[in-house]
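ok so i was messing around last nite and threw this chain in just to see what happens. nothing serious, just curious
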Amino acid sequence: MAKKEERDIVILNERIALGESRRLDFSIAKLYTATKVEIPIIIERSKIPGPTVLITAAIHGDEINGVEIVRQLIARKFNKPKRGTIICIPILNVFGFLNGDRSFPDGRDLNRVFPGTKSGSLASRVAYHFTKKILPHADYCLDFHTGGASRFNAPQIRIKRGNERLLELAKVFNAPFTVYSNTIEKSYRITCQKMDIPILLFEGGKSRESNKHIVKEGVDGVLRFLDHLDMLGKRFIAPKPTEKTVVIEKSKWIRAQKSGLLHVKVECNKLVEKGELLATITDPYGKMRFKVSSPHEGYIINVNQSPIVNQGDAIFHISTLNTLGTENEETED
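result:
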């Protein structure tokens, strides 16, 4: 029996029985116009007891792919479980979403202030109430992100090295890649770790963009995850993966050796050979053309899609099996 397998659950002072559907408004603060800002929470409970899965997106307000993934889960009724409970929060950082910004209006990154404080910054207060009032009900968490700025992430699940339980669940989700990634202090992911709640962090695409291929990978992975827990509705069938997830144990950044215009020559996801042309960097005047080649064989799991780069900018993230690689240095969460 799941540890949170209660017949009734109380969230934000609302009692929700087995078999009930409910939308709650998680309200922490108002805009300076005195307008309420509410975070909708969509809760679906089966009549049959079972585990509780918490699904979140847009901890960073400009990461749209995750919002669309959770929206589709709700719109297509995938969030109505055969047993147990599914809690969906499509937009956790409504403040950032309204502004098209990663952070809160106070400049704080919500994913760097967990578990938060009751009397701290606005972001810290949201993290605190979320951690105290919603997160304790979860048996499993799925959290959806994208690459920041112009960096496009291949669809991937990030987990901590050495956690066999998470590795098993990542293989069930079966994103194209599973990347070992260190947890960051004061992140949502490390808070779940300390509370012994398994969490899979999905990364795919880039901020301020909705990519249908990334969204499909996310939705399909959730269906496989729910099916594994025997929670997927009887009229739905989890898609079978065509290939197994590729586990990336080590990786490194390829950085720009010149400043200039970036012309990318390979797609994200691709397995490249040592010496393969990845990009060229040119000046605006037709005098300089610098070739960027792969230092070794590996999968490209992140591509900088900015048309202009400065010397030292990260332009490709590539897997590696040699000792030169390090655990994923990509800014996660």
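not much to say yet. The chain has six helices and 19 strands.
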